Every structure is written in structure tokens, then in C-alpha cells.
């Protein structure tokens, strides 16, 4: 019996003692950690705010087919694991104090004087975010108190949704502001061209030289028609009256008056810088500038409306498929898994050690 005890003593020291210490730690001293779980995806407004036909299953399919890109999922996961999120949680729930409480076992808790980097590393060990094949994020959070785990998890979802809304609105506002600046520049240019056209019209004392030219042509045509009639009448009178006759003299005076009037009207069309053809040239230049400015303003305003519509469709919101519930039992440490793993490792180590010692003993002279 003493020989048996001597043979079993190494096994007790290598396997039994560590297992006993591990059992005492796990069942007496180890602080339990409660885990909460949620699932969510990010949906854009262009895909609608309600569930599509087919219910939740169709919503999951649409999440993977265009409701949320993998980049969106990566961004929200990085934000959840960020220092900014940790600062919000610590401010709301005193997370550093909760993680470093002396009521927790030394191995599990955060050091009381831990640096910000150590605090962030410890927090990241408690939060786990995995992106599924359909870009659906599965979020898990662990804490030493069940209510704290649930409340912190819910706050993370709330802040993540606010972050998504804030980012998408900022991007939309940036697009709208850029187009709005283009609209303002186009409007200012249109006002300048209209003011220049108005100043030209006031200086030329003509609202529309082209229309005025049409009137002049009409007057010339009427005067030439009247002149042609008078010349025909003059020819008729000279057939039986002398040139000194009063009627012939009067008719010739009328003809000279009409010819002078026609020359004056024609002089309005061509000649100096105030002629109608020069006014038409300048007027058309102003009109072209004004029309181009009007087209640019109309195009910019249409782009603004289209950008507003597109921006509203690109707004995104976080849709929770599964919200965190109050955990009823600690999920960690996994006592059975730890004990079984430790037993296998210790047994394997003991067997290897015995084998090595046996080989050494066999080779001794």
C-alpha cells in the first residue's frame, strides 16, 4: 500500500492538485459573467421602413441583397469597439468601477489603476461583434451583473443607431450644401445678367430692339407702298397736266416727304452705334447671357431637388432583429469546458512525463 501511494503521488501532484485548485476557484471564487445577445442590420430609406412582403425572412434576405453593405457593418462594429463608445458607457454606467470592483475575483476583474489602453482592451474582451454572410451583425456583451449587461447592451444599440443616423445625415447634408452653393452661384449670375439686360434696355430706351426693328420694317413697307401709289398718281396727272400745275407740284412735295421719311426709317436700321442693328447685336449678347444663366439656374435647382430626394433615400437606420434580454444564469466561466480541457492537458502532460522518465531509466547503464 505504501508502494502504491508512492506510485500515485506524482499523479496526485501533477493532476489531482491542479484540478482541486481549479475546482475551488471555479465553484467558490470565480465571478460569473452574464452574456446578452442581439442581432441587427442597417437599412437605407430607399428600401422602405417596413418589412417587405414575406415578413422577417424576406427582411433578412433584403438585408443581404442591398439593405446594408459589408462596409456599413464594419463601420458600426468599429464604432461599438471604439474609445468613444467606451467613454459614453463609462460616463453613463461607471463601467470602470463596475469592472474593477473588489467584489470580483482578482483574475477576472480590471486592475484598479489600469490605464485607458488597458481599460479599452478589457472592454473589447467583453464585447463581441460578428458580421454574418447577410451583413447581419450579431452583438454579444458580457458583464458581472445581469441587469448591467442588459442595460449596457441596450445603450450600445441606442448609441449605434444615433451614430448611423448622424453619419448618414451629415453625408446627406454635405451633398445638399454643395449643390445649394451651386444654386446660389447660379442665382447670383442670373441676377447679374438680368440687371445688365435691364441697364442696357434703359440706356437704349428700347425694351426689345428686334421687335422695334420689325415695326420699322413694317413702317418702311407701308411708306414704300404709299410712295408707289403717289408716283403712279403723279404719272397719271402728268399725262394731261403740265409740271407747273398745282396738283403736280403738291404731289411731288408729298413724294419728296415720303422719300425723306423712308430714308430716315432706313437710317434707324443701319449707321451709327445707336442704329437698330447695333442695338440688336448688343441685345442678343445680353439675351444669350441671360438665357444661359437661366438654364444654369434651372439645371442647378433641378439637381438640388434630385439630390434632396437621393439623400433622403440614402438615410439609414438601425433595425434590431433581436434585442438583448435579461440573462438568467452566468455564461462564463464555462466550468465544464474548462475542467475537461484542464484534465485532458494535465493527463497528457503527466503521460508524456512518465514516458520520458521511462525512456531515461531504460537507457541508464
Describe the fold and architecture:
This protein has 365 residues and is α+β, with helices and mostly antiparallel strands. The chain folds into 2 domains: 166 residues, Bacterial polysaccharide co-polymerase-like (2-Layer Sandwich), CATH 3.30.1890; 127 residues. It is built from 11 helices and 4 strands; from the N terminus they run H-E-H-H-H-H-H-E-E-H-H-H-H-E-H. Strands 2-3-1-4 form a 4-stranded antiparallel sheet, sandwiched between helices. Strand 2 and strand 3 form a beta hairpin. The longest helix has 59 residues. The protein is rod-shaped, with a radius of gyration of 47 Å. The two termini are 30 Å apart. 15% of the residues are buried.
Radius of gyration: 47 Å
Task: Give the fraction of residues assigned to helices.
Answer: over 70%
Give me the strand/helix succession: HEHHHHHEEHHHHEH
Write down how many β-strands occur, each being a DSSP E stretch of 2 or more residues: 4
Describe the main β-sheet briefly: 4 strands, antiparallel
End-to-end Cα distance, whole Å, is: 30 Å
Question: What structural category do the secondary elements indicate?
Answer: alpha+beta
Strand content range: 5-15%
Mean pLDDT: 80
Count of individual helical segments: 11
Amino acid at each position: 500500500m505504501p508502494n502504491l501511494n508512492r506510485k500515485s503521488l506524482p499523479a496526485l501532484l501533477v493532476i489531482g492538485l491542479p484540478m482541486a485548485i481549479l475546482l475551488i476557484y471555479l465553484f467558490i471564487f470565480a465571478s460569473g459573467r452574464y452574456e446578452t445577445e442581439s442581432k441587427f442590420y442597417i437599412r437605407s430609406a430607399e428600401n422602405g421602413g417596413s418589412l417587405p412582403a414575406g415578413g422577417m425572412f424576406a427582411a433578412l434576405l433584403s438585408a443581404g441583397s442591398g439593405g446594408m453593405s459589408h462596409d456599413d457593418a464594419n463601420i458600426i462594429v468599429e464604432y461599438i469597439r471604439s474609445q468613444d463608445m467606451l467613454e459614453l458607457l463609462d460616463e453613463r454606467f461607471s463601467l470602470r468601477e463596475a469592472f474593477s470592483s473588489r467584489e470580483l475575483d482578482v483574475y477576472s476583474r480590471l486592475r484598479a489603476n489600469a490605464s485607458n489602453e488597458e481599460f479599452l482592451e478589457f472592454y473589447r474582451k467583453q464585447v463581441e461583434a460578428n458580421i454574418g454572410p447577410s451583413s447581419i451583425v450579431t452583438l454579444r456583451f458580457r458583464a458581472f451583473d445581469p441587469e448591467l449587461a442588459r442595460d449596457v447592451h441596450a445603450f450600445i444599440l441606442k448609441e449605434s443607431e444615433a451614430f448611423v443616423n448622424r453619419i448618414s445625415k451629415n453625408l446627406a447634408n454635405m451633398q445638399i450644401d454643395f449643390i445649394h452653393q451651386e444654386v446660389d452661384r447660379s442665382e447670383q449670375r442670373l441676377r447679374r445678367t438680368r440687371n445688365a439686360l435691364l441697364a442696357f434696355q434703359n440706356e437704349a430706351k428700347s425694351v426689345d430692339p428686334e421687335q422695334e426693328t420689325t415695326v420699322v420694317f413694317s413702317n418702311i413697307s407701308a411708306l414704300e407702298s404709299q410712295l408707289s401709289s403717289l408716283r403712279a398718281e403723279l404719272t397719271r396727272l402728268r399725262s394731261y397736266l403740265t409740271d407747273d400745275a398745282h396738283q403736280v407740284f403738291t404731289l411731288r412735295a408729298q413724294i419728296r416727304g415720303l422719300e425723306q421719311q423712308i430714308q430716315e426709317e432706313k437710317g434707324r436700321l443701319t449707321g451709327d452705334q445707336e442704329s437698330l442693328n447695333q442695338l440688336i447685336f448688343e441685345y442678343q449678347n445680353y439675351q444669350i447671357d441671360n438665357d444661359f444663366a437661366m438654364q444654369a439656374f434651372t439645371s442647378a435647382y433641378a439637381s438640388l431637388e434630385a439630390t434632396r430626394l437621393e439623400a433622403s433615400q440614402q438615410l439609414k437606420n438601425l433595425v434590431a432583429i433581436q434585442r438583448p434580454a435579461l440573462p438568467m444564469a452566468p455564461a462564463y466561466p464555462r466550468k465544464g469546458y474548462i475542467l475537461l480541457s484542464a484534465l485532458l492537458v494535465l493527463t497528457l502532460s503527466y503521460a508524456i512525463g512518465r514516458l520520458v522518465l521511462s525512456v531515461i531509466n531504460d537507457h541508464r547503464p
